[in-house]
């Protein structure tokens, strides 16, 4: 199977009009997707995207157009390597920023195509691969001081006999979720209270609040949430990179009385040593990060430095499915839970496949594992994420659930679509 | 002074035709610049660029076009903050990859404009600022666990009385250089031998060889260079990120007999802990990196982790002059020499200003400090770097030396220029 063509789209939703998605670093996001459609030489299509929050989405689309010639006319099987090993393109990263976001969209589109062809939802396709096949999907350069291909193969083989049981369990019971919908920074207190009560009624056992703009506000909001939720529902807090290391330590000391389960993105996503220092200081509060971690090399170091308790991979920030398999293997080797970042546009749809695969074939554990859920923009996808009783239901439609409805691709096309006129 | 307009250019030189610039990771670079011209409301112009090696340069140009609306009509003084603190754009990094390369070009163009207006070469303009003014140019977010503004001010104040002496000394004697022109991986042995002899005749006391593609070749080339150069001329080697950590350690053990001065870019530029491990293993050979370090947060950690001996800042990879001042201050605080990356297109022209400023006002030292020099493409600049006796002469023309000749901007415009027809 070869790639015959690549179509690209700049899709934006005017979410800043409602303050949905507002946090301390991102006050007015317009949730967006740089979107790619791969067409194979037999006419089959794979859809993939990366998520951005508005301005600059056209630059990621330009990156998609710049990468397309590397893969058109070529087989689909080595697409990830072709995109990340081009020597001239590599200079623009390596493996980070705009080019890597675009790579994620193309790699994910290729997996959507493969899974559709296999007639399986992506997580089941991945869970059907042998340990050797899974190991071969990873680019091991820069990883072998922490994990070797042989050690990864052993790790996968250890649990391969019981995979089928876990696949059945996932189909029956789904996978735990937590909700961020209650805690956006732009929401007034009464809305937070109402949404927190609703979250518990919906079966969620963890709620996340945005913090980091104003300490007095954060204390009030955390106190309110703890009162409404009681002592047994977990409250995660998320600073969206707002702090330097000393700020993070001081701010979390002031929030400790509300028993936060984790502090997410306390500082720069590039600051491995900073996360390690914060983690030592805020214990027993856990440190979580990942949605802005540029690539597997940084994830590797966060684990080597014992800098995180929770690995929050993102479906579209690193180079899609292939690089995320490296992250899942590293996290399993270091025995840290993966709790993916989701929300945005289509991230819930996509990333659930990775967590389902993780439980089925990699970590084999659900302990302290939850996938983020935000009730937002799902209606634009052909195979939207479904939640019941605070759990993601298992995806059943062939593919990676990354395909938007044709009418959404038209209406939210930027700047020419009707939503922007 | 406000910005009235931003013009952008995609400039590429077909250097891959000659194997100049070939190394283990970049076999066929077409040295390129994403180039910006800021016009102030009084008509004055500042020119700046970032360096790439070909494919994807159009994406950086698209990033310049995406950033321009953030600064048009706005004062020039807070341009750096406007470009790096836009919440939607920030999602695409933060502060890394294509958007950050484009930010570098714009920030550098602003400094070219300021220095021209002041009637001073940039290094002298910077060396005329007070410690407080210099400190105010830095974005201190994410740095204060390693260096505070107050400590930076103290560091600058300590040497401010003797600045004038060092400025005079620089004008008289220039700044030491080393050459990479002899050691490109694509060159045959007889060419390396001839160019190494020429380098010594030209007054250079250090020569750099590219390594990392084939160990037997590297041993032969290093032996040849050591024989030709004798024991007293330093030989640096540069692997351009080719190795994982265990490879780097093994490979350098095999090259140790040739007494390399430093090993440059032994592994991924994102791998702080990897550099620290390599440094411990290859001692007394020094570890150098920087040309691909994404931002000040990663430089900070390389210093905190004692992972490097030599800080190789690049004029256009981090966000231009402002962020490089943070890097100079961090390096001075940790007492590590800065030996900038140069070569490419215009990097020698630009980065010498930063080293001259470093000696005049920041580190106050020339010990083990050298600026890379590559004899390449200087003819396209209005104020080309000048070398005599193995030293950079002090720039004397007002500005940042970042302006290309108009005829070069026309001839090498991609894809429409005559050089590409």
From TrEMBL, chains A, B:
GO terms for biological process: amino acid catabolic process; carbohydrate catabolic process. SUPFAM superfamilies: Enolase C-terminal domain-like, Enolase N-terminal domain-like. Its EC number is 4.2.1.68. Keywords: Lyase, Magnesium, Metal-binding. Its cofactor is Mg(2+). Residues 189-285 form the Mandelate racemase/muconate lactonizing enzyme C-terminal domain. It is an enzyme of class 4 (lyase). Pfam families: MR_MLE_C, MR_MLE_N. It catalyses: L-fuconate = 2-dehydro-3-deoxy-L-fuconate + H2O. GO terms for molecular function: L-fuconate dehydratase activity; magnesium ion binding. InterPro entries: Enolase-like_C_sf, Enolase-like_N, Enolase_C-like, L-fuconate_dehydratase, Mandel_Rmase/mucon_lact_enz_CS, Mandelate_racemase_C, Mandelate_racemase_N_dom, RHMD-like. It comes from the Bacteria. This is L-fuconate dehydratase.
